[in-house]
């Protein structure tokens, strides 16, 4: 039986990104704080809640079926998840929240294996001028989900094809990702693995919160979790939540997209010939 009165470390045995993002949200809503969440996802593209997938993802990623695209509940930029990329989440109290506190915990854990990490004003973690971690937050009621990715031994070359620069014909107020030169922790200590980095972070968390219970994800196979999983997989959440944007098919022939659907068009005849009709879902494959 899950004791919801205990501060805990939650380790996920799963690699399904929709499940892990959903379980993280469920823990945020139902479990005590402070708590620590750790998981490694299979290959996927995960964007911030206020981003535009058609600006952030390569066209074949959205059009294809092998790499899922997901929208998380926190802000920030788009990241590629996959083997070797550790996800670290903290659920903490909203009152007096200071994001540096959690990030410094990660940096302190890395110092135990000889890695000198710097936390920037943006909340990124750098080692020798290369980014090894980015972070984002979700504020909900009296608590905050503050999570970060930590590159341990990810396929960095494999990350690049999944993202692309913005299409200049698309105008939006959505938050754009900030690109950075990245590195793996194994570039600085070749002996590190996902497991060893997890153990380092858990050990540091336990130093700060010695009464926390270290456990795997509890049995969250319940209706409230399944509803969250279905939302994370739904078109309405991944694409329909995209902020309003405008896309020009040709000069003076532009469409306005609201909630992922084409709301209006100038020069409807030209837009229709290009595959864009009012009321349809916006389809990246015809860009």
What's the SSE blueprint?
Elements lengths: L7 E4 L5 H14 L4 E6 L3 E4 L5 H4 L2 H5 L5 E3 L7 E3 L3 E9 L5 H13 L6 E2 L5 E3 L2 E11 L2 E9 L4 H4 L10 E3 L21 H15 L4 E4 L6 H11 L1 H4 L6 E6 L2 E6 L2 E5 L2 H6 L14
Parallel strand pairs: 1-2, 1-12, 3-4
Antiparallel strand pairs: 2-6, 3-5, 6-10, 7-8, 8-9, 9-10, 11-13, 13-14, 14-15
Question: What does it look like?
Answer:
The protein is of the alpha+beta class. The chain has helices at 17-30, 53-56, 59-63, 99-111, 156-159, 194-208, 223-233, 235-238, 268-273, and strands spanning 8-11, 35-40, 44-47, 69-71, 79-81, 85-93, 118-119, 125-127, 130-140, 143-151, 170-172, 213-216, 245-250, 253-258, 261-265. The strands form 3 sheets. It has an 8-stranded mixed beta sheet, with helices on both faces. Strands 11-13-14-15 form a 4-stranded antiparallel beta sheet. It starts with 7 loop residues before the first strand and ends in a 14-residue tail after the last helix.
Low-confidence stretches: none
How much helical structure, as a percent, in the residues?
25-40%
Architecture (CATH level 2) name of the largest domain: 2-Layer Sandwich
Q: Kindly, what is the distance between the CA atoms of the first and last residues, rounded to a whole number of angstroms?
A: 51 Å
Note the total helix count.
9
Strand content: 25-35%
Largest sheet: 8 strands, mixed
- Per DSSP E runs of 2 or more residues, the count of β-strands stands at 15
Question: What is the CATH class name of the largest domain?
Answer: Alpha Beta
Number of domains: 2
Radius of gyration: 20 Å
CATH superfamily of the largest domain: Bira Bifunctional Protein, Domain 2
Summarize model confidence as the mean pLDDT.
87
How do the helices and strands follow one another from N- to C-terminus?
A: EHEEHHEEEHEEEEHEHEHHEEEH
What is the overall shape? globular
Say what the CATH topology of the largest domain is: BirA Bifunctional Protein, domain 2
What structural category do the secondary elements indicate? alpha+beta
- How would you write the strand order of the largest sheet? 7-8-9-10-6-2-1-12
């Amino acid at each position: 039986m899950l004791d919801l009165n205990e501060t805990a470390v939650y380790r996920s045995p799963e690699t399904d990104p929709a499940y892990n993002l959903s379980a993280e949200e469920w823990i945020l809503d139902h479990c005590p704080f402070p708590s620590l969440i750790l998981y490694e996802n299979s290959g996927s593209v995960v964007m911030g809640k206020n981003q535009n997938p058609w600006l952030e993802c390569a066209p074949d990623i959205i059009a294809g079926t092998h790499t899922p695209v997901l929208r998380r509940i926190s802000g920030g930029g788009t990241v590629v998840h996959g083997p070797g990329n550790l996800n670290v989440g903290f659920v903490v109290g909203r009152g007096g929240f200071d994001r540096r506190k959690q990030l410094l915990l990660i940096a302190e854990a890395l110092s135990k294996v000889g890695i000198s990490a710097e936390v920037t004003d943006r909340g990124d973690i750098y080692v020798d001028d290369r980014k090894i971690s980015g972070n984002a937050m979700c504020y909900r009621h009296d608590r905050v989900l503050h999570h970060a990715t930590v590159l341990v031994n990810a396929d960095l070359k494999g990350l690049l094809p999944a993202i692309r620069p913005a299409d200049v014909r698309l105008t939006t107020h959505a938050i754009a990702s900030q690109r950075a030169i990245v590195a793996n922790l194994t570039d600085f200590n070749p002996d590190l693995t996902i497991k060893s980095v997890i153990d380092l972070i858990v050990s540091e968390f336990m130093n700060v919160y010695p009464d926390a219970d270290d456990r795997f994800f509890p049995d969250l196979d319940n209706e409230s979790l399944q509803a969250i999983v279905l939302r994370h997989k739904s078109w309405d959440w991944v694409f329909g939540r995209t902020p309003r944007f405008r896309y020009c098919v040709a000069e003076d022939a532009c469409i306005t997209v609201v909630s992922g659907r084409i709301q209006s068009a100038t020069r409807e005849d030209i837009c229709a010939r290009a595959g864009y009709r009012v009321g349809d879902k916006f389809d990246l494959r015809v860009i």
